[in-house]
Description:
Mean pLDDT: 76
Number of strands: 0
Strand content: under 5%
Order of helices and strands: HHHH
Amino acid sequence: MGIYREKKEQLIEKIEFYKKRIADDTARKKAAEDKLKEVSRLAMAVEYNCKPRELDEIISAEHMLLQKLRSGGLSDAELLELVGGKNADGDISSDKKNDDSTNSDSHYADDEDDGISFYDNSDGDED
């Protein structure tokens, strides 16, 4: 019975060690995520040629403008045509193209998002 008690205590100590390690690693991960978020915001501010504190106002203004244009009847494809935007394949991203085409084009799957976003960075940062 003493062997099992000793083994049990060792396992309890090991579990406590891992709990502390997980807590420490979680805190480090959170700090790294916060730093990544800040660096992403700074990169976006540089891209928009503004100060980081002005970024929220710029994003809000662009979003409101986009919503007004959409509510005025413009589709994402028409908006992209107006600004000369192209998607990653080099084609103008088009809701109209998807509506007019038959479903035989396999690369226009339903799960693909062909919408416009003025907030995407070319390097994939979202924040």
